[in-house]
Design goal:
The protein has seven helices and no strands. The protein is mostly helical and 171 residues long.
């Protein structure tokens, strides 16, 4: 049994949660912008991961961020929903030539597929989180605006992290 994928996912979990709670939660850009790069952990879990384990790991990631951010379960709910939906999106969007992708990344599925997959799940996460935070449908326009801004910034940071840390294919 190869333990390398398990170790990689544990390290990814620790590093992304640390980046989120130690750096990104303290960034202030004048408006309510809060990039959430820890969801990259959820996005990059192996596609052959058990569905219940996937949802539990997403729950755990959101819970860790909530604990360190004092955010009343908003991250937990949004991350769990993202993990639940990720199962469906990964199976539909990331399969190439009827062959499952082990760990979704730009390298393994290509820029176009990974971008669409990341944008959709990031937008769902951001909208869910911001709607829970506002908890008022009268604020829907500001929630939608903040969703677009947060999704764009999170997406760009995820692409940056992908390019920095995903090794090129050996040629």
């Amino acid at each position: 049994m190869d333990n390398k994928p398990i170790i990689n996912n544990i390290l990814r979990f620790i590093l992304l949660i640390a980046l989120q709670v130690l750096v990104l939660n303290h960034v202030y850009l004048g408006i309510e912008v809060s990039p959430v790069v820890y969801i990259l952990f959820i996005l990059m879990l192996p596609t052959n991961c058990n569905k219940l384990l996937m949802i539990f790991l997403a729950f755990l990631a959101g819970l860790c961020v909530d604990i360190f951010s004092n955010t009343l379960g908003f991250h937990t709910f949004a991350a769990t929903l993202t993990g639940f939906l990720r199962v469906t999106f990964a199976n539909r969007m990331l399969n190439q030539d009827d062959k499952a992708v082990e760990t979704p990344s730009i390298r393994s599925v290509g820029m176009k597929q990974f971008s669409l997959y990341t944008l959709i799940l990031t937008a769902i996460y951001c909208f869910t989180y911001l709607m829970l935070e506002a908890f008022d449908f009268a604020e829907i326009l500001s929630v939608l605006l903040l969703t677009v801004v947060n999704t764009a910034i999170t997406y760009l940071l995820i692409l940056l992290l992908q390019h920095l840390f995903i090794r090129k294919k050996d040629t």
